Fold these 4 entries.
Entry 1:
Amino acid sequence: MIKVIQGDITALAVDAIVNAANQMMLGGGGVDGAIHRAAGRELYEACLKVPEARPGVRCPTGEARITPGFRLPAKFVIHTVGPVYRDGQHGEPEKLAACYRNSLALAEENGCKSIAFPCISTGVYGYPIEDAAKIAVREAKDYLTQRCREAEDAEEMEIVFCCFSDRDKAVYDQLVAKP
Ligand code: ADP
C-alpha cells in the first residue's frame, strides 16, 4: 500500500523512516538535521560506528545503512544518500532509484512492515520534484508488485511518502493515482 501525507517525518510512528543523509552520515541540514535533533545524540553515536566504505564515506551515493531510531517514534532510521542533481544526464535517475530500492530491501531484511520516505534529493541537492517523485513512485510500485509475485500471502509493506510541502504532496498524489 502506498500513502502520501504532508508533514514532519520525525513524528511518524512507522517501523522505519528514511533519512536523506550525506555520505559522512553525521548529520546536516534539512530533513537530516531534523531527524538527528529528534532522535538525540545516540543517533550520532550510532552513525559514527558505521564503518567507512572509503575515507569520509560511510554511505556511498545510492546505498543505504540502518540504525535504531532512538528517541524517535520510528523503530529504525534508514540512511540513504541521494545524488546531487546536475542535469539528469550524470546518472542521477539511476542513483535516486537505487536509494529507494536499497532502502526498501534493508527495511524488508529488518522485518519492517511500514516505511516512510522524505522527498530524497529535492532539497539542497536540487533534484526537480516532478522527476524525483516519478522515480520514487515507480520504485515503490515495482517493489510492491514484485513482493506480491514472490509471496502471494505476504503481508504488504506500507510505503509512506512524507512530503514537507502541500505542493510536493500534490505531485505525489497525482502519480500514485495513475494506474
Ligand atoms: P537533500 O539534501 O537530499 O536534497 P533536504 O533535506 O535538503 O535533502 O531535502 C529533502 C526534502 O526533505 C525536501 O523536500 C525538504 O523540504 C524535506 N524536509 C525537510 N525537513 C523535513 C521533515 N522534518 N520532514 C519531512 N521532510 C522534510
Entry 2:
Amino acid sequence: MDNMLARTGGRPARRGPRVALASVVVGLSAVATTMAMASGANAGTTLGASAAEKGRYFGTAVAANKLSDTTYVGILNREFNSVTPENEMKWDATEPSQGQFSFTSADRIVNHARANGMQVRGHALAWHSQQPGWAQNLAGGALRQAMLNHVTQVATYYRGKIHSWDVVNEAFADGGTGARRDSNLQRTGDDWIEAAFRAARAADPTAKLCYNDYNTDGQNAKSNAVYAMVQDFKARGVPIDCVGFQSHFNSASPVPADYQANLQRFADLGVDVQITELDIEGSGQTQADNYGRVVRACLAVARCTGITVWGIRDTDSWRASGTPLLFDGNGNKKPAYTATLDALNGGATPPPSTPAPSTPAPSTPPPSGGCSATVALNSWNGGFVATVRVTAGSSGTGGWAVAVTLPGGATVTNTWSARATGTSGAVTFRNVEYNGRLAAGATTEFGFQGTGAGPTAAPTCTAS
Ligand code: G3I
C-alpha cells in the first residue's frame, strides 16, 4: 500500500478487489528519533499528498449523510486519501435485523472513496456498543454464533475493498486493572476476540486486521493489557496485523509524553500501528502544537502507517463543542491544519514550548564503556509500570543486562522488549534479539509492569 500511495501522488492506488478519557501517563524521556526531512521542493500541499510522500495515508471519518454537502465533499476530495465510515459499518447499521444485512449507507462511502482513489478503513466488526437490539438481547452460544456470522458476512461483502478492518473495538476496561471490559461479547468467553480475528481473516485475507481502542495512547494498565494480548496473538498465530490508537485528546487526557514510545513498543511486536480517530480539543497554537506532536510521533515510527482524524470540520465532530478538528465550521483551515501539514512535510521546527518527541533524554551522560540505565516509574495504589532506558557507553554494546532491585512484596507480572530472570527481589532484564546491539551513545527502552511498589534504587547496567 505504501509504495502504491507514493506512486500515485497522494492518492492510494485502487485495490482490486462518551469515552472516559482519564489516562495514566508514564513520565519518561522520548527515544531519539530519526525523522526524514522532506526537501521544500517535495513538500506536499495537501494532507493526503504530504502523507503519501512519507509512505503513509491521511484519512478522515466520513458520515454518509454529509456526502451531499459540497463544502464537506470539496475538503474531503482535496485533502484526504483514506476514509473511515463513522457509523455506517457498525453492527446496528449493517445488520438491523438478524441475518438481514443493509449496506446502503456504507456503500455510499465506499463507492465515493473508490471513485476518488481513496482507501477505506472498516469500522467496526465486533464492539460492545452500537449493537442492534436483537444482538443486545442474545447471550452465550447464540450471541457468539451471531457475532461470528456478522463478522463473516460483512467482511465477505467488502472483501478486497477494505485496507484495514477494526475487527474488535474497545474490548478492554478503563482504570488500572488491565481487565477485559465486561460486555455481552466478553461473557461469551475470553476467546471471543481471537475468534473474531480468525473469522475476519477467513472472510477477507487481503485486509489488515486491527485491534482498536482508546486510552491506550501511552503506557498504562490498559495499553499494557492490549500489548500482552497482541504479544500472545503473535506467539500463537492468531491473525492480527495492526493496532489502532484512537487518540481522542483533551486537557484531561492530553497527548501522553510517551506517545511515540508506546507506538514503537507495539510496532516492535511485529504489527503495524495506526492513529485511527484523532481529535484534540482546544484552539490556536496549543492545539496546533499538539497535532504537530502526534504527526511527528507517527512519522518517527516506521510501522505507523497512517493517521485518521475523526471528522473534517469542527461542526462535524462527535464533540463539536471542543472544536477538536483541522477545519472550522466554515471549512477554513485552522492553525492545527497548518501544523499538521508542516509536520507531514517534515519542515517545521517544534515550538520551544512543545515537548517534542525527539527531545534527547536528559539522563546520565553515557559512561565511557559499558552501559547505563535509568528508570521512569508510573505507580498507582497496588501496582506500577517501569520504563527503563538503556544507554550504551563509548564502546557500544553487543548485549546488555539491567539489574533491578524490587522492594519486598513487589512482583513483576509482565515485561516487554526484554527478558526477565526472576520476578521479585533482585530481577535481571536482558536484551531481546533486536535491541541488544547498540552503537556508542545509542539508547533503547524496555519496560515491565508489576504489583506492589516499584523499584526505588538505581538500576545497574552491564554490557557484553
Ligand atoms: O442518526 C441518528 C438520527 O437519526 C437521530 O435523530 C439522532 C438523535 O440522537 O441520532 C443519530 O444517531 C447518532 C449517530 O451518532 C449519528 O450522528 C447516535 O445517536 C449517536 O450515538 C452516534 O454517535 C456516534 C458514537 O460513535 C456512538 O458510539 C458518533 O457519531 C461517532 O463519532 C462515535 O464514534 C466512536 C467510534 O465509533 C469508536 N471510538 C469512539 C468514537 C467517539 O465516541
Entry 3:
Amino acid sequence: MAHKLTPFITAEQIAERNITLGKEITESYKDSEEPLVCICVLKGAFLFFSDIIRCIDRPIEVDFVRLASYGTATSRGEDIVFSKDLEISIEGKDVLVIEDIVDTGHSMDFLLHVLRGRNPKSLKICSLIDKHERREKKVSVDFAGFELSDGFIVGYGLDYAERYRELDGIYELSTE
Ligand code: IMP
Ligand code: MG
C-alpha cells in the first residue's frame, strides 16, 4: 500500500513556534541559576530536541533516554522499560523532559514515575505535539508546540515504521 503524505506543519512554522516556546521555557526558569537538565526521549524527539535547546536562553545539561514497549495493542503501557537510561544524576535539579508526541500518555506516565523517584527539584514536560484528546493517563504537557486531535503524522523526527524521520516539515500520513 502506497503512503500519501499531506503537508501539515511547515519547517518555517516549526522554527517560529520553537522560538516562542523557547522564550516561554526560558521565562519559566528565570529564577533558577542552576543548569536545567533537558532530557531527550529518543528517537522521535531528536530533531525537535536539537532545535528547542538552542532556543532556551540559559545554562542547560543534556541527556537522553529511550523507552521500549513490549506490550501488545491491548496491554499498552503495561510493559514499558528503559532501553537506554540517563547517564547524569537529576537529584535536586530542574528537569525538562522533551518528547515528540504525548498521545495516550502511557509512555510519559511511566517516564515521569521513574524520574520522580530520583528526586529532581522540579519536573516538567515539553512536547512538540500534544494529542490531548486521546489521553488515557493523567499527564499534562507544560510546554506544547502544537495540538492535534487525531490523525497520524510523520516527519521532523516522527516516524512510521522508522521511515520519514528526516523530513524537515510534519506531514499527515494516509494510505491510498
Ligand atoms: P503514548 O504512550 O500513547 O502517549 O505514545 C506516545 C508515543 O507514540 C510518541 O512518543 C510517539 O513515539 C508515538 N506516536 C503517537 N502518535 C504518533 C504519530 O501520529 N506519529 C508518530 N508517532 C506517534
Ligand atoms: Mg516517542
Entry 4:
Amino acid sequence: MFITFEGTEGCGKSTLIRNLSTRLQTLGVAHIITREPGGSRTAEEIRKIILNEEMDPLTELFLYEAARAEHFRNTVAPALKQGKWVLCDRFTDSTLAYQGYARGIPLPMIRTLNRIASNRKSPDLTFFLDLPVEIGLARASDPNRFEREGVVFQNKVRKGFLEIARKEKKRFRVIRVSELDPEQVCEKVIRALKSHLRKSL
Ligand code: TMP
C-alpha cells in the first residue's frame, strides 16, 4: 500500500503518521515513513532550499518536482518493491493544492510534471486532514515561508485539496479533524484502511 497524507499547516499529519506507524508495527505490517519535500538525501537538501529561500513560483515548482523525482526513485519505489507499505507525508496533491490552486500555476502543467516525477504512480489511498486554517496556523511555533503567507493563501490551499478530493473520490478520504483527538483520527484511518483492503481482496 502506498498511502499519502495531506492537509494545510498544523493539521496533525505528523502525529497521525507516528500513531499509525505504531499500530502497524503491532499488526506486523512492514512499512516506512517518509515525507515530501524530502525523504532521501538529495531531496532533504532541496527541502532546506525550498523552505528557507525566497524564489519564483516556477522555480519552486521545479524544485518540488526535482525533490520528488529523487525521493520516488530512491525511497518510495524500492520500499514498494520490497512489499513494504509506504506512509508518505505529502505527495503530488500538495503540489496541485499549493503551487496550482493557491499560487495559480496552471493545473495541467503541474499534473504533467507530477506524472513524470512520480513515474505515474498514484497513491492507493490519500487522507486529507481537514482543519480550519486559523486553528492550524495558530499551532505553528516556528512558521515556514508558507505558514507566513497567512490565512488567505492557506484557504486557497484548503479549497484546492477539497476540490481534488471531490474529483478523486475513490482515492481520497477527507477527515474533519477539528473535533477529534489524535487517537480518534488514527482510528478513523485504520477503519478506512481495513475497508479499502476488504474491497480490494
Ligand atoms: P510540511 O510542513 O508538511 O513538512 O510541508 C512543507 C511545506 O511544503 C508545506 O508548507 C507545504 C509545502 N509543499 C508545497 O508547497 N508543494 C509540494 O508539492 C509539497 C510536497 C509541499
